[in-house]
Amino acid sequence: MSQPAQVMMIGWEYPPHNSGGLGVACHGLTKALASQKTQIHFTLPYLHTDKVSHMKLLQCSDDSWGAEGLETLYQPPFSVYDTTLETLQVRKSGDLDQYALRTLPRSELETKVGQYAKVVASAGRKMKNKYQVIHAHDWMSFPAGIKLKQKTGKPLITHVHSTEYDRSGLGSGSSYIEHTEYLGINAADKVIAVSHYTKSILVQKYGINPNKVAVVHNGIDPLPFYPDRGRHHFAGKRPLVAFMGRLTLHKGADYFLKVAKKVVEEVPEVLFVVAGSGDMYHELLFQTAREGLSASVLFSGFIRDVQKEKLLNRADVFMMPSISEPFGLVALEAAQRHIPVIISKNTGVSEVMTGSLAIDFWDVDRMAAAVVKLVTDQEFAQQVRDGQLQNLDHLTWDEAAGKVNQLYQQTLAET
Amino acid sequence: MPKICFYLHLHQPHRLRDISIFDVGKPGANYFYSDQKDDNREIFLKVAHKSYLPMLSLLNQLINEHEGFNCAFSISGVFLEQAEKYVPEVLELIQRLVKTGKVEILAETYYHSLASLYSPTEFLEEVKQHEAAIQHWFEVKPSSFRNTELIYSNHIAQMVAKMGYQGMLTEAVDRYMGGRQKTKLYSSYAENKLPLLLKHAPLSDDIAFRFSNRQWQWHPLSAERYLDWVELYPENDYVNLFMDFETFGEHQWEDTGIFEFFRVFVARFLQKEWNSFVTPEMVFSQLKPPDVAKLPVYDVPEPISWADIDRDTTAWTENELQQDTLRLIYSLEKKVKQTGNQELLNKWKNLLISDHFYYMCTKWSADGDVHAYFSPYETPYEAYRSYCIALADLQENLI
After folding, report:
1. Residue A160: inside a domain, yes or no?
2. What is the value of ipTM here, to two decimals?
3. Using CA atoms, how far apart are residues A48 and A45, in angstroms rounded to an integer?
């Protein structure tokens, strides 16, 4: 066994700040890597004040950020990723979520990402003896990764947690972001995709050589407590089907409503809950009313923490009818809480959660039939639950970190 | 020289509290206030302080000072509930005014609902319930009818006539007036004809909406100028000034001079002995059936109201959010009534209050401003969202 690698990891967000899917994944992965003796320097474009002991954090913010450079940034200059649920933060000037971000002039995006690249490259060059490999997470970090590789000649691994194709309205994304992704995965010595589904997008839409892409599925930390499942939480008299996610085109919330319509025709008392916010919100409300579902589909608005826990603990079925989902962490969170999950086939998690019911997002009839079966056939629901729990046993960050470590070694051996 | 019929509308809805999906199915969940927070109380206290108390006092003064002054109130049942609970002094002041015999109380739906459009049975029940409440608080029996937001149609007039009322108040809508004057008496187009008093929108809105508008060419409006406008009408005409009670002190703040304006106007108007105020009852009770039969007919095939520019019911029924929630709440009528559960019935009836649907209105432009002014929600979508949660809870109780 070779020496554990020393890694310069380029991040953008880290829990608890803007801890979206990306932040959560970075946390899980770095902890597991560290426990396998990997040494990590992790850059962030802001000052992270919470204590982190398993790696070294580097603040790489540009002086011009914050309130005209007068204030220290405590979170990323903008938040790029939708998360399963929006994180609630006091927003500072300059910090924008990805929807506001899209309205930013392209020049501003480029400037911020470019400045981050400069700061990271300059910090990274000074300490180039302390790492052997560069590992950059998603497009905001790719320019920094490329620059650092150019300055130091060290191998670059780019890690794709999601693509602009998933995030945007399927092909209507920012050309700048797509281009940045393209450059990032091309400049890299190796690419990590969070699923075969994402790998196929990289191959088909970005034209990358499939041999360069390794698939490393995300893991999930086990629940530290046994879930308090049951109908006692609320709406105890009827089956409850939950959707959680940003209300955007690619999450397929409109398909959730179509399924609701079909299910209610057969089992009228089923209650559907849509948790989340997003740009399709008003349209979804109108769709609900138009279909006569005003008392059958409820919108919780944006929820988190205790409320999120409560909804998951109460739900009898969890649905993720995404049109495109690189991974889909929230499906695992539902499975952990013993909820039968129906997932779209266009998701990364469907590759690992074989116990869940994977159905095409557009196949409303089959989705509806699956919901009806799950809420009327307890034995079947139990089978699904058990199958999912077995899947979860293998979905650890330790496993993911093992694969990443192997890739580090392989990359170092080849370069 | 005309007669002025001055009528003020008193209503406060039970607004939904910040209800969440996690309240669905909670035993005894209250939709309208919590132990920690009661926005309805805060609003009522604020409006009572700014409008109800000072204007009621002013009306009391005017009645004492001027033999010829009188007016009419329409008071929703849910207003009476809140007045009793939050500011009983408001009720006492109204009682005192009614005792003078100079203030007529009109009949209407208890819950300020749209029942006249959706459920004849509920409409009848609410009118009865309202009549009982008026009897209880003021020991009078209303004889003239005004529907929620002056909503009116031939069909509604027929229902009201069947209940035995003497006459009705509504809006004069151009498309059904055919160029005729709104200051005349009309009769309903119905089997049982009812005499009608029609609102004079321009003169009413001069006070209710334009009074404090600095862009308005007549700002600041003097009592003298307003008197000139009113006196343009001949003897035997009726200038029907119908408006929200809150016009005085709340929509138009005290510092706009609204109270003083009204005090001076009443005094100047009554200085001339040929001028007089009338109440609907004074007008309607004079009319014998043959007189009513001779009145020109106001034919209104589609429901009208006093709301928005369109003067129709689209403020409550235009979009799908409103339509589906209205459909659902009225579809529960039989089920709710069959349970015989008073608490459930109460919740259901309070969800009929028309304001809930008004808040869901997505018509923008000039009307949108008015809707937004009255709404406790940031957007019509939040109004819909909250209402649906209450609906789902109600349904949960019926499973």
Report:
1. yes
2. 0.92
3. 9
